[in-house]
Specification:
The protein is of the alpha/beta class. The chain has 2 domains: about 190 residues, Rossmann fold (3-Layer(aba) Sandwich), CATH 3.40.50.1950; about 210 residues, Rossmann fold (3-Layer(aba) Sandwich), CATH 3.40.50.10300. It is about 35% helix and about 25% strand. The strands form 6 sheets. An 8-stranded mixed sheet has the order 15-14-11-16-19-20-21-22, sandwiched between helices. The chain has a 6-stranded parallel sheet with strand order 3-2-1-6-7-8, sandwiched between helices. It has a two-stranded antiparallel sheet with strand order 4-5. Helix 12 links the parallel strand 19 and strand 20. The radius of gyration is 28 Å and the shape is elongated. The structure holds cytidine-5'-triphosphate (CTP). Cytidine-5'-triphosphate binds next to helix 11 and strand 19. The site of cytidine-5'-triphosphate has 14 residues, from helix 11 and strand 19.
């Protein structure tokens, strides 16, 4: 169950007899590679013990806002905000009628509800109650309300209930809960199965062992594109020129290079096995005519450095491409639309992102960017936003078009 590998899951357990299935759910989540933390409502303690759940989850289990952690009996606050922000998903299973009603009306009289109200991640809710309670219009209204908040209801199953009656109200079986969550994750990962190659940063072209020709590119746009692509489920290789940035998503394959030629050679190793290539690197257009193997001394009175044109990586890739979807970047100070469109055609690209160089906003080293996404058929403007947010917007376009 690769989809759950490394996912941080906060499981909330409320006081229903179905809580006896919570340890099984924890066990299955852990087996699928997830990291699980559990919070209980006080009444859940009547049905399942924190020791069972902490043993299975390998994490402390909390059921109250405070807890004694030192020898002096000082109560320590269980930080519900921290717990909620930690989680990639929250699952409330079983969710009683009481808990569902509190969630729908933002009541907060226990740690589970406080976590729920602070959660920014997707929340899955598995109702568990007797059939008539389940059908009650008040309960149905509350479930609809939770759906309107964006929560995902894991619909109760039909079968024998604790009352001895038969009907709809049983908590969804733990294995089915896992299936539903995995399905949801897959839908959230539209780039799953895609191989994406991204270039980033500047290139440095050596003059002598200590000097080079380079530019101010920080690599932030390329790194943000790589993060977004990986978060959307793609297998990402990022080839970066010199940059101090670190990758956050460990699944990204980061390759460091220095010069344009090194970058091109690394790209070629991957190019014929990828679906999408995004050229966000600020490749140096010029390279010194000759490389001085020894450091040039001041006394040599070097007044000029003779330059020649560097390799145009993207132009070359445009010539040899087969099915790869090629996206370039264009940095323009004037005639942006026209110049970007010409680059799109000349380099045989599928799309190009136009960055407009202005005096007011320095895009180098900034966390923000804006511009236009241009294809042969359309041009879409994007307002100033974070480079990561812009990356998601660019992928939205690529997913639609490719
Ligand atoms: N690019 C490249 N190799 C180069 C120069 C640029 O692969 N030697 C790529 C960039 O990564 C970018 C696109 O080509 O995706 C356009 O880069 P840009 O610097 O805007 O344009 P240039 O082709 O260099 O043309 P000019 O500098 O004259 O505007």
């Amino acid at each position: 169950m690769l989809a759950l590998q490394g996912k941080k899951i906060l499981l909330g357990v409320s006081g229903s007899i179905a809580a006896y299935k919570s340890p099984i759910l924890v066990r299955l989540l852990i087996k699928s590679g997830a990291d699980v933390k559990v919070v209980l409502t006080p009444s859940a303690l009547d049905f399942v013990t924190p020791t069972t759940l902490s043993t299975l989850s390998k994490n402390p289990v909390n059921s109250s806002f405070t807890e004694i952690k030192d020898e002096e009996d000082n109560p320590e606050w269980n930080n519900h905000v921290e717990l909620s922000l930690w989680a990639d998903f929250m699952i409330i299973a079983p969710a009683t009628s009481n808990t569902i009603s509190s969630m729908a009306s933002a009541r907060c009289n226990n740690l589970l509800l406080a976590c729920y109200l602070s959660a920014k991640c997707p929340v899955f809710v598995a109702p568990s109650m007797d059939l008539d309670m389940y059908k009650h219009p008040g309960n149905q209204e509350n479930l609809t309300k939770l759906e309107s908040f964006g929560n995902i209801i894991l619909e109760s199953e039909t079968g024998y209930l604790a009352s001895g009656l038969k009907g709809k109200g049983r908590m969804m079986e733990p294995s089915n809960i896992i299936k539903r969550i995995v399905e949801n994750i897959k839908n959230e990962f539209p780039l799953k199965g895609k191989n994406i190659l991204i270039s980033a940063g500047p290139t440095y072209e050596k003059i002598d062992p200590v000097r080079f020709i380079g530019n101010f590119s920080s690599g932030k746009m390329g790194f943000s594109l790589a993060e977004a692509a990986a978060n959307l489920g793609a297998k990402v290789t990022l080839i970066s020129g010199p940059s101090s940035l670190k990758i956050l998503n460990n699944s990204i394959n980061l390759i460091n290079v220095v010069s344009a030629n090194e970058m091109y050679n690394e790209i070629l190793k991957y190019f014929f096995n990828i679906d999408i290539f995004i050229s966000a690197a600020a490749v140096s257009d010029f390279i010194p005519n000759e490389f001085h193997h020894l450091k040039i001394k001041k006394s040599q009175k070097l007044n000029e450095i003779s330059l020649k044109e560097n390799i145009d990586i993207l132009f070359n890739l445009g010539k040899i491409k087969t099915n790869q979807y090629l996206v370039g970047f264009a940095l323009e100070s004037n005639d942006g639309d026209k110049n970007a469109y010409n680059k799109l055609i000349n380099k045989n690209l599928d799309a190009i992102f136009l960055n407009i160089l202005s005096d007011k906003q320095n895009i180098f080293n900034s966390d923000y960017n804006h511009g236009k996404y241009i294809t042969r058929k359309k041009s879409i403007s994007f307002k100033l936003t974070t480079k990561l947010d812009l990356s998601y917007k660019i992928f939205e376009q690529i997913i639609n078009d490719s």
